[in-house]
Amino acid sequence: MTYLAKPKFHHPGLPKNELGYTHRDYEGTVSTLCAGCGHDSITGAIIQACFELAIEPHRVAKISGIGCSSKTPTYFLGNSHGFNSVHGRMPSVLTGANLANRDLIYLGVSGDGDSASIGLGQFAHCLRRGVNMTYIVENNGVYGLTKGQFSATADRGSKSKRGVTNTDNSIDMVAMALQLGASFVARSFSGDKEQLVPIIKAAIAHQGAAFIDVISPCVAFNNHAGSTKSFDFVREHNEAVNRLDFISTRMPIGLQQEPGTVEIVEQHDGSRIALRKLDADYEVHDRAAALGFLQHHAAKGQIVTGLLFVEKEAQDLHAHLDTVEEPLNKLGEKELCPGSAVLGQINAGLR
Amino acid sequence: MPRHSIAVVFAGSGGSGAMSAGAVFLRAAARAGYFGMMTQLFGAQVRGGESAALVQIGVEPIEAQPDRFDAFVALDWDKVEQFAAEIPLDETSLIFADPSAGAVPAGIAKSKGRVVALTMSDPGESKIDRALHGKRVNMFAAGCLAALCGLPADDIGGAVESIFGEKGGDVVGANRARALAGVQAAPALALDLKLAPPTHDRRWLISGNQAVALGALRGGVRFVGCYPITPATDLVEWLAPHLLKLGGRLVLGEDELASVNLALGASYGGVPAMTVTSGPGFSLMVESLGLAVAAEIPLVVIDVMRAGPSTGIASKTEQSDVNLAIYGAHGDAPRVVLAPLSVGDCAGTAEYAVYVAEALQVPVIVLSDQMLGQATAVIDPVSDRPPPQSRKTNGAAAGQPFKRYATGGDAVTPMPLPGTPGREWVAEGLTHNEAGLPASGAAMHAAQIHKRARKIREFDAGDRWGEVTGEGDTAILAFGSTVGPAREAARRLAEAGRNVRVIALRLLAPLPAKQLAQALTGVRRVVVIEQNDTGQLYRHLLGHKAVPVDAESVARPGPLPFRPSEIVNYVA
Predict the structure, then answer these.
(1) Cα B264 vs. chain centroid, distance in angstroms?
(2) Is residue A40 part of a domain?
(3) A32: nearest CA in chain B?
(4) Whole-number pLDDT of residue A341
(5) What is the predicted ipTM?
(6) Which domains occur in chain B, in start order?
(7) Best of B271, B330, B415, B432 to disrupt the A interface by mutation (most A CBs within 10 Å)?
(8) Confidence (pTM)
(9) Of A172-186, B27-41, B76-90, which range is least confident?
(10) What contacts B82, CB < 8 A, 6 or more positions away?
């Protein structure tokens, strides 16, 4: 068995969200990942975010590829739809599904091997197209399922558990996402749920390509001295530029706005992100500055986290293609038939 | 004595307008009421390579390339040597050439065909005009040859208008003028190439690639993910605007890996989806054929085969992807493979492919080939359409846990639209249990393998499996673009008093054992003919004991088409 069913408890005292769902309704089966795996914390954060957003589970499609990260959709949102595809191909499957049915919330769940190694091309093109989705990379710099080879996000000079030094440069997926035109780009740390949960909530509410790189230490193969993706290393080198509070469309702003320290970012769906600036120099709407800031700090060995870029007037692939509001899979012959004039033209073209 | 058909080649260097000349000649014939077929012969260069339009027109439907050509029209001699060997001419062939183009090259002259001097360029044209617009010798040649065949000038002018109409009045006017100049030059040649009177009827002028696109749209395809590849690109170019008019979407993926998965994602999302490719792209897609089988997602893959392996010959035909289509994928991955029987049948076969994919929730591969795909034919309209079938989406009764991959009952299990409350499911490429959760136990693995195998085993194509024509105790078994020449060969053998049966196979996998056995009743000799070196179809048939062990194999690589005489010589 590669999954363990989780018993359903219905304790009357369990807190419910505004739709009447409990936290349990957003969980999946018992995780079979290693005890202490960063990915399980991300699973917890996704569950928490969806519970707090009061999403109807059947409105979510979780799309994944292959790897430890892509196993996790079995462990969250057990009452949702999904497609667990093949290695590195999640982005194209998600794009196709999104074009067929724009009504669902698409969670793309991937890892550094799935998205930075085998699937780098698909990652890039999916962001370039601006697919409306939340693309989460659970980034541990290592191939866990095959026991410890470096992935493409492993830092140069980082040491493997067996003592081998990585000699290749690493791919910074956040820098790539910024360059490729993602309209919401964040980096977080699996060990920092307070930062991660509101980022996921804001990303789900974002109507465009939202990318979150979550550093997620691998307890089995990448959590030793010499690794730059270990819990200790990330905690010591984490430079958070801001902290978020997410305010959904249904919630009033209960936050006292202190001038200069809190910025409210309104998203297309009406939700708001309250950003508390931790770094006075950081400007969240400047794509080019974000890239420079990121690389400047990377050179110093610092890992910048937080909401790094959000576009104020984000658009998605459906806007680019000018598609109708009604999902393609709901359009019947009645709506799609262009009428006898157009059909006549097609026929005339064959004569 | 009037002819029943005539075969003409318009040849020149790339950019000389050979294809346009062929197109005008064919369309004029279509307007005048004749049948016809044009195939294209060209190199891989975008500009400046060799190119030739091979056109045959006549009073009867034409499905095969001719054994030889009656006329060879040289628009120039620049690159003609490069493909002279692929154009059969003989001493009764006429070779039309402008004396100003120079001497007839040895490769053409050795046919000993009669050379007809024909000044094709306009002597009144200024140098600057010629530099700006070209000599338009192609239109002159098309007009002249069409007139020699007895096609009315109105139809020739009309053909020019219909082909160049979108380019505006000046272009149409100039081209029509040169074509009509060609018409006027014809009588002075004193040649008799007149065709017998035609039978006027409503017909289609369509290429195999266009017909596949038409069939897919008729079948309900509303999403296409694809990547450009010769010789499948023109299929997509024809399809795209029509698909958009019908409310569908086309996404040009960054490669074939993405393209097939875009289609798979859209199909998962509830929209009949297709991808279009040729051999090199198809190789990349194999990974997701397995995924479509395992996750049970409908998918249509059109493979317009070209010469392989590897990059092979991009612009020329071969039937060598049979193994890949039937068996390509790791693990046991049964699927359906269809091949159209003719240019017109491309429409019905593609439409049927969509229905089968949706009904069985499997990948269905349509093996077309360059010869069918890029042949333009004048045919009777395709009215025979397969009865529609659609996806089973209704789930279990309310209250019961939904099992997407339930075993034991009907092998085809409901696939509700994602987003349906109470019918949540995960499409899964891992071995999974009935609910779709990953499972690695032996029993569940076998149960799911057997479920998918049973879908294919229980599939009955009925009389869509193929077609049998003719009688006799010798049977030629063929598929794709080889069917046309096989049928033409059988006609000639019948005229000579020898009855031969042609079994045209549309369903390559799963093999229609029952129907094939019936088709082979009373047959003593079976000849399996295909355009690849290893006898891929032959081995498939033998492996399934679908033909007797003493069946003969005629297998040779492309890109030269099978000519009827080649088949006649073998069988006789």
Answers:
(1) 24
(2) yes
(3) B438
(4) 84
(5) 0.88
(6) 5-201 (3.40.920.10), 205-379 (3.40.50.970), 392-459 (no CATH), 464-571 (3.40.50.920)
(7) B271
(8) 0.93
(9) B76-90
(10) B43, B49, B50
